[in-house]
Amino acid sequence: MDTYFGIDLGTTYSAIAYIDDTGRPTPVRNSMTNEDTTPSVVWFESADNVVVGRTAKDVAQLYPERVVSLVKRYMGKEEAWEFDGRPHTAESISALILKQLAQDAATYTGREVTDVVITVPAYFGMLERDATRNAGRIAGLNVVGIVPEPVAAALQYEVDGDRTVLVFDLGGGTFDTTVIKVSAGAVDVLCTDGDQELGGADWDARLADHLVQQFIDKASPDGDPRDDEQFLQEIARIAEDTKKMLSQAESRPVAIRYGGGSAMIEVSRAKFNELTKDLMDRAVEYTRRTIETLKSKGHPGTIDDVLLVGGSSKMPMVAERLTDEFGWTPRLHDPDLAVAKGAARFALSRAVWDWPGGAEDRIEQIARNTGIAPAAIEANANRKITNVLPKAFGVKLVDSENPDWERDPDAASYIHHLVHANESLPSGARPLQAQTVAEGQTAITIEIYEQAGSVESRDLSANAAVDKGAGEISGLPPLRMGSPIAISMQVDEEGTLSVHAAEPSTGKDLTIDVRVSVLSEEEVVTARQAVSAITVRA
Q1: Where are the domains of the chain?
Q2: Which end of the chain has the smaller Cβ count within 10 Å, N or C?
Q3: CA pair distance 444, 403, nearest whole angstrom
C-alpha cells in the first residue's frame, strides 16, 4: 500500500500526517502519549539510546547537559554538540526527532514510512532548507519535497474564487508571516518575512521569570530557587500550562512551593499581555513589513483572509492585536495540525508529479493502491504552487576605492546581491558587470553569499558564505586594472543556485552549480550511519 506522509518538523512540537484511504489528511498519534503532536526535544540517555518527546521535555532542566531543545533554531548553522564522545549537528539531532515520528507513523498505520515531505518556515533560506532535507536523509527517509509551512497550511484551506490570504504562523520557536494568492487551482506565494528567534517559547520564558520573581518576593524561601534545576523545570512546565489556560480564562491562580516557602500567585491575561507586549510588537512589525513588501510589488495590499497557524497563535492577544492594528478578523486555521496535513497533501501531489510516465496512469495506480478516489487525487495534484526566494544571494566584491583595500581586503569587501528576497522562483538570469581590482591580475575568484539576517544588507557580516559556492578563473594573461568580468546568477525551483562568470578577452569562464548546504555528502552519509545505530524511543 502506498502511503504519503507530511511532517511538520517544529521548533517545540512536531507532527506527522498521512493521506488515508478516503483521501483525507489524518494526523498520526504519538505512540506514548496518544497525542497528535510530539515535543521536539531529544534526551541523550546513553551513547546508543535517545528519548524523543514528552519524557525528554520533562527532564530537560534536570539533565540540561544531555538534552537538546529548540534545535530548529540552529538549522543551517555550523553548530555542534557532543554526547558520549560523539559529535552531533542540528541535522543529526533533527534526524532523531524524524526517526521517532516515522516509527510512530509505522506503528499507527501498519505501513512502512519512506517517502515524506517536510515543512520549513517560509523565511528559511536555502541553507536552512537544505539542512532540513539532510536531516530527513540522515533519518533514513526519502525526502520528496521541502515545502514552506504557510504553503502547506494554505493547501488545507478550502476557497471559492481567488483570495489574497495572510498566513500568520506563530509556532513554539519561530515566526513568519506570508501573503499567498489562493485559488481552487493554485497557491502563489507573494511575499514572506519572519524571525527564527521568536516563538511561543519566548512567551513561556517571560511568564516563568515572572512567576519565579513573584514567588521570591512573596514567599522569601530558604535559598535561591533559581539555582535549583528541578524547581526551574517545574516552573517551565507551569508557565506553559498557565499560558494555555489563559487562552480560555481571564486569570489563573498558580501555587508554588520551595525551600520552606509557599505562595499563591494570581496571573491575569492582562498581566501576561503586559509581560510579553514587546514580543507581540515584534510580530506586528514583521506583519507590517510584509504588507509594505506586498505593496512594493504593485499589489494594493488588501488582505481577504487572515489565517492563524501555529500553536502559539491561539493566544487571544494575537487576534486582538491584528484586529487593532490592521482591522482584520483573523481566524484559527487548525493551528496545531494544518501544516502537517497540508504537507501530506503535498506529498500526494509529488507522487503524481515525480512519476516518469503519464500523470493519468499514475493517478489510476495510486487510486488502486490507496483506495482514494481518482478525482480527489487529480484535484490535489493539479493545484499549482509558486514559491518565492526567501533570502537574497550575491557575490563578494572589493571596493578598490577604499584606500586600505590591499592591506585588508575583507574590510573593503561587500556583497552585491543579484537575486533578492521575495522574488518568484525560478529566478531569471541576473547579470553583473564587475571589474578586476589590481594591475596585472591573472586570476579571478568568485565567492557566493546568502543574506544572513532578516534585512538585505551589503555588509559582509550580514551575509553567510555559501559552502562550495566559490571558484576561480585562473591562467589569465596579466589584465589591466578595471578589466571587465561578466557575472550572472539564477536560482531554480528546487533551490539550485547557478553562477556563471567569464573573462571576455580570453573567453575563459567558470560555472558554479551548487545546492546551498552546510554538510558535505560524506558528512551526511557518516551521520546517517551513526543515527541508524541509535535506538530511539518516546
Answers
A1: 1-156+334-386+519-538, 200-275, 393-506
A2: N
A3: 21
- Report, as an integer, the average pLDDT of 408-430: 91
408 burial via Cβ count (<10 Å: 0-12, 13-18, 19+) = exposed
Instruction: Identify the architecture of domain 1-156+334-386+519-538 in CATH.
Output: 2-Layer Sandwich (3.30)
Please give the Cα distance from 394 to 391 (Å, whole number).
10
Q: What is the DSSP letter of 389?
A: -
CATH 3.30.1360.70 is the classification of domain 393-506: no
For the cut 90, the answer to whether the pLDDT of residue 1 exceeds it is: no
Cell of 189: 506565494
Would you place residue 122 in the very low, low, confident or very high pLDDT band (cuts 50, 70, 90)?
Answer: confident
> What is the CB neighbour count within 10 angstroms for residue 54?
16
List the grid coordinates of 476: 589569465
Closest CA to 515 of 493, 500, 533: 493
Specify the fold of 200-275: Actin; Chain A, domain 4 (3.90.640)
Query: Which are the contacts of 224, defined by CB distance < 8 A and separation ≥ 6?
Result: 216
Q: How far is CA 91 from CA 74, 131, 134, 515, 528, in A?
A: 9, 6, 6, 16, 10
Q: What DSSP string runs through 264-328? A: EEEEEHHHHHHHTHHHHHHHHHHHHHHHHHHHHTT-----SEEEEESGGGGSHHHHHHHHHHH--
Q: What pLDDT sits at residue 321? A: 97
